[in-house]
Amino acid sequence: MSHPPLGRDPKEGVSALFYERWSPRAFANAALDDAAVARLIDAARWSPSCFNAQPWRFYTANASSNADRFGEFLNLLLEGNQSWAKDASVLGFLVGKKHFEHNGKPNASYALDCGAAWMAMTLQARQEGLYTHGMAGIKHADILEHLGLDAEQYEAVMGFAIGKKGEASQLDEGMQDKEFPSPRKPLDEIWLDK
């Protein structure tokens, strides 16, 4: 297999849904109806998974329809993420089920499968003119406790924010400089076929 010539636009032929996807921190503090959130989660539902186990569980809090839950979810983020995530329309946590339901054995692929579901949700969001921002800076153990989940059976894989993009100027000064799509590694650095 030969690589495309160096210098060729790496986006050529790639859907704009992929290269226009990025993770802003500035959100517009706009209402998002529950039907829109349901579509995003429904897109995730169709993701592939080992043995079709579908180990993902999406827990969401919509600021416009459940402000109390949104506040609880905001407090389950690390402080640095709280400062900007407060303006998102929806906050959520992606939780992975660690064991297969059909035989109770450990599922070594649950995190990978959750990642596939997250990407499907994110691309559906972009198709609808929305943005997402995934977060590793979350209070993992506190999230499971808050949701009443057993840490032996579940892992809080990530947090996420959903909404319409806001203005960089609304962010703290240190974050304004980061408010642009981050670069990608060159194709020949991640594609090793020799």
From TrEMBL:
One of the Pfam families matching this protein, by short name: Nitroreductase
Record carries keyword Kinase: no
CDD domains linked: TdsD-like
UniProt domain Nitroreductase: residue ranges: 20-69, 79-164
Bias kind Basic and acidic residues: ranges: 175-194
Keywords, ordered alphabetically: Oxidoreductase
Cross-referenced SUPFAM superfamilies: FMN-dependent nitroreductase-like
Highest taxon listed in the record's lineage: Bacteria
Keyword Secreted: no
InterPro entries associated with the record: Nitroreductase (IPR029479), Nitroreductase-like (IPR000415)
Location of region: Disordered: 169-194
Family to which this protein belongs: Belongs to the nitroreductase family.
PANTHER family named among the record's database cross-references: NAD(P)H NITROREDUCTASE YDGI-RELATED, NADH DEHYDROGENASE_NAD(P)H NITROREDUCTASE XCC3605-RELATED
Protein's name in the database: Nitroreductase family protein
Organism: Zhongshania arctica
